[in-house]
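Lab notebook, bench 4. Still working through the backlog of constructs that have no structural model yet. Next entry is a single chain of 263 residues. Request: give me the structure tokens for it.
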Amino acid sequence: MIIIGEKLNSSIPKTLDAIQAGDEEYVIRLIKQQTDAGADYLDLNTAICGAEEEEKMLWLLELVLKHSTCGIMVDSPSPSVIQSAVEACGNHPVIINSVTIEDRYESVLPIVLKYHTGIVALPIDQDGIPETLADRITKTDLLIHKLRQSGVPDPQIYIDVLVETLATNTQSALNALGTIRHIAQHYPEINTTCGLSNVSFGLPKRANINSCFAAAAISAGLTSAILDCTSPSMQLTLAIAKVLAGQDEFCMDYITFIREQEE
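Model written out:
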């Protein structure tokens, strides 16, 4: 399970304030908290900074490279910002977030192929997010075929399973889980991912919903997620879910985690 820390995203009000103010102390604290909590990658998004997006992205990236060994998820709607950030990463592991079946595909894929990065891909076309599981599977198959035809190896592909809030779509979790199972069964070397916290947006007890969904998704075959890895309830859920999914031989990681918590 690849854990991607969600805290360095300009859509989070406190993070946006820190980025705009150039508050290095606050940002470094977020970087270290997520790194210490076991993140494999850190998601970097400065899109809400508007005209300063690229400048703020490179500032944020410099701090991450200096204060963490985590991989970088370059999260931007701008191909030019993505290009600059990927170049600045050097040989550091990178995942680009994101392309759809049509949007940004032609401008971002050359960067993916040149720098051998991972790529988050959303099975969305001009009709928007597919409403039914059958439609999601159809568009997922189309997107995977397109990425393969473009020369992207399966392990570098991260299909976003489009987690929406349950508050407005009670089928959201079921559709995402069905998509995860389909990919796990038919494309075993392709990764699945999601903005996991989306599932609980607008609802009370969000941490509980997120933890329950994470357990179900890992059981279904989810291989990565953008989430709050600093949450104690999420940390415990991930440790248990990996055991239940057969991903923790002899429960050693779980036992170690519990011992560390007790200490």
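Notes after review: DSSP finds ten helices and eight strands in the chain. The mean pLDDT is 97. Flag for follow-up if needed.
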